[in-house]
Amino acid sequence: MVSLQNIFTGATEKAKDALRFYETNYSCIGKWIIEPGKKVILQHSQPGVCRFCGLITPKVTFKKEAHAIPECLGNTSLFTKYECDACNQFFGDGIETSLGNWSKPQRALSGVRGKRGVPTLKEESSRQWRFEHGSTGIRITQDETDPIAVVNAATKEITLTVHRDPYTPVAVLKAFTKMALSLLPEDELPSFRAAMAWIRNADHKIGLVKTSFFPVLYTFVPGNSPLVNSVILLRRRSDTLPVPYVTVVLTYGNEAFQTVLPSLERDAGLSGQKVKFPDFPTPYELDRDLEPAAPIQRKRLDLTGRSLVGRETIQTVLRYKPSKRNEATGDGIDA
Ligand SMILES: [Zn+2]
User: Fold this and answer.
1) How far is the CA of 21 from the CAs of 25, 36, 216, 274, 331, in angstroms?
2) CA–centroid distance, residue 54 to ligand 1 (Å)
3) Higher pLDDT residue, 108 or 187?
4) Whole-angstrom Cα Rg for the chain
5) How far is the centre of ligand 1, averaged over its atoms, from the C-alpha of 97 (Å)?
6) Within 10 Å of residue 138's Cβ, how many Cβ atoms?
7) CA of 210 to the centre of ligand 1 (A)
8) Ligand 1 centroid to 99 CA: how many Å?
9) What's the CA gap between 85 and 159, in Å, rounded?
10) Which of 19, 78, 102, 293 is 20 to 30 A from 56, alpha carbon to alpha carbon?
11) What percent of the chain has pLDDT above 90?
């Protein structure tokens, strides 16, 4: 077998370390590139059985197209045949709404195209403003007396202050888990019965997650849609290795999310242990010829909160280069 470290000779030392870790401990059990227009429909060995509730036709129907990855994250091509209409509705109204609200500000900034195009951020109550992607770039409309965007022409930075629609953190985590369970090879499902019950429980106060064992590794790559929409599933090579059984890496727009797929059945032995878990490297760290627009940012997200979070305020700094057309005004904003 060709070593990954030998393929990516231009990788940074940190990325090489991470490659070594993943090569030693994991094998890839699934990889999908999300390409608009290339439709892929995943099937169950037994047609007419729902993977999530276990019910069989005609007790349940399969009329709707079930997205393996939520549509809001830019998936218009990867579907499954094994999510019944009732489960589809249940997840769509519940955990995927939380995921949609939680991820919307960054998707709007990154220009990730969902069902109704790239989301527009707006407020039409007391403070009227809009943030949208147009054919010529980003457009911000705002009330000058109470702006959401503050431009600093000296540093070429725009500070944007927006609100996030309500979401429950643990529901976002469940939505990531649901996505991975949708993509998981069928023979792995017995290792995730507890996880399956957990995502199907609408009561987010109940069960399964422990803060210490549930980080979401978050990577932000600056630039104009620098990452390919993709998802990778990795499985532990052997049960003697002290690492979580399955991990999933999802990338779209400017962001990559990596989390552990919770398996009470397989990972009970890890409870209480300190587990090494490096970030899965991005292409920008594997190839020195690829250069991100600005340094890559990383953090660990804690999405284990079980209560609804109301209007959260988020502040983002956008950096810009004035184009020739905009030089006259100093910035590219319509205010
Ligand atoms: Zn179902």
Assistant:
1) 6, 32, 18, 15, 45
2) 6
3) 187
4) 21
5) 18
6) 20
7) 27
8) 20
9) 42
10) 78
11) 50
- CA-to-CA distance for 272 and 146, rounded, in angstroms? 49
Name the pairing type of β-strands 40-42 and 78-80: parallel
In this prediction the pTM is 0.87
**pLDDT value of residue 211:** 56
The alpha carbon of residue 166 and the mean position of all alpha carbons in its chain are separated, in whole angstroms, by 18
Which residues are within 8 A (CB) of 289 and not within 5 positions of it... i.e. 6 or more apart? 10
Quote the ligand 1 centre to 92 CA distance (angstroms).
12
Q: Is 278 exposed, middle or buried (0-12, 13-18, 19+ CB in 10 A)?
A: middle
- Whose structure tokens read 């000058």? 144
Strand 227-236, strand 215-220: pairing: unpaired
CA–centroid distance, 250 to ligand 1, in Å, is 24
**Please, what is the angle between helix 85-93 and helix 95-110, to 10°?**
60
d(CA 323, CA 156): 12
For 53-97, the DSSP string reads T--BTTTS---SPEESS-GGGT-SSEEESSS-HHHHHHHHHTHHH
CA 78 to centroid of ligand 1, rounded, Å: 18
- Distance, CA 88 to ligand 1 centroid (Å)? 7
85 C-alpha vs ligand 1 centroid, how far in Å? 7
Widest distance between CA atoms in the chain: 65
Check whether 138 has a pLDDT greater than 80: no
CA 195 – ligand 1 centroid, Å: 15
**Distance between CA 230 and CA 228 in Å, rounded?**
6
**Per-residue pLDDT tens digits for 162-197:** 889 999 999 999 999 999 999 999 999 999 999 999
Ligand 1 center to residue 137 CA distance, Å? 41
